[in-house]
Design brief:
The chain has 291 residues and is of the alpha/beta class. The protein has a single domain, classed as Rossmann fold. It has helices at residues 3-17, 29-42, 64-72, 77-106, 122-125, 138-147, 160-163, 191-202, 224-233, 243-250, 263-269; strands spanning 111-115, 131-136, 154-157, 178-182, 207-213, 256-261, 284-290. Strands 3-2-1-4-5-7-6 form a seven-stranded mixed sheet, with helices on both faces. α1 runs antiparallel to α3 (64-72), α1 packs parallel to α9 and α4 crosses α11 (263-269). The chain is globular, with a radius of gyration of 18 Å.
């Protein structure tokens, strides 16, 4: 079977399944696919496992498009290889951010706010004395409440592009140290939205922002299978950032770049289980601080 034709057929299915008009921040299929990656990773032997998320299987994406891609990997070897590489990339950055969030808690940050939280389960897996807040669109937030009712996080329903970051009235303490997490999100945001969010996150005493972003150097590394998948799910990146460009965006908010980990550095520092496994396109991880 011609795997390109198979992906095109899946894309047409996606088109027919979408409503005529879709909100800016409708439920992300990528969030469910990432949960599938973490669930699959949890089934690997401990010695070769990047991370173990015991809750991820609850969020396995059931959308027909994602199911079609999963089946397609058995008849399209390039697709199977790309999905395996994406699993490594996602789980590695997720593990890196796990470690950096835990580090922030150990350093006295008492609030963690995750923007575009998707199906992240850190409030249960990492816990700690901090208060947790999760910001996402209503569709995703509602599904998460149904499948993970024991989560201690306060849900904030908002479309970040339309609503910004509405923290007032949520229980967030503007005078207490806060760590913000943006994983797999920055590249979907218009530059003006990113700047506005950074300004909000940087306002107040002792702020930290942990995020992942796509460096332009990744673009030439994108395989045909990867670019086909991006077109199929229709969640294409809007922007790419170098570490220098990220620092420039952060500076007006009083935030400075205090840590930067490309994929190889993530593996070395946080995810030894990824050593020797193939990866294609990946995201860098960065830390911004306001003392």
């Amino acid at each position: 079977m011609d795997w390109r034709r198979a992906l095109h057929a899946v894309a047409e299915t996606r088109h027919s399944l979408r409503p005529a008009e879709r909100r800016t921040g409708g439920r992300s299929l990528v969030a469910g696919a990432n949960a599938l990656f973490r669930a699959a990773e949890a089934e690997r032997p401990p010695a070769s496992r990047i991370l173990a998320d015991g809750y991820a299987a609850r969020f396995a994406e059931r959308h027909p498009l994602v199911q079609a891609i999963r089946v397609g990997r058995f008849v399209a070897p390039p697709l199977a290889r790309e999905l395996a590489r994406l699993q490594v990339a996602h789980c590695t950055r997720h593990r890196a951010l796990d470690a950096l969030v835990a580090e922030a808690l150990a350093e006295g940050f008492t609030q963690v706010v995750t923007l575009g939280a998707g199906y992240d389960t850190r409030p249960l897996r990492i816990g700690g004395p901090a208060r947790w807040f999760e910001v996402d669109v209503p569709e995703t937030a509602a599904l998460k409440r149904r499948r993970l009712p024991e989560s201690p996080a306060t849900a904030i329903e908002a479309d970040l592009i339309v609503d910004g970051l509405p923290l007032a009235g949520t229980g967030f303490d503007a005078d207490a140290p806060a760590c913000f997490v943006l994983e797999g999100l920055v590249h979907y945001l218009p530059a003006a939205t990113l700047d506005a969010l950074l300004a909000t996150m940087g306002a107040g005493p002792r702020r930290r922002v942990l995020l992942s972003f796509i460096d332009p150097a990744m673009v030439p590394r994108a395989s045909v299978a990867f670019t086909s998948l991006v077109k199929v799910v229709r969640e294409a990146p809007r922007q790419y950032l170098t570490p220098e460009a990220l620092a420039e965006h952060a500076a007006p908010a009083g935030l400075r770049l205090t840590g930067h980990w490309p994929f190889a550095a993530q593996v070395a520092a946080f995810a030894p289980g990824a050593r020797g496994r193939a990866v294609g396109v990946s995201q860098d991880v960065a830390r911004l601080d306001r003392p």
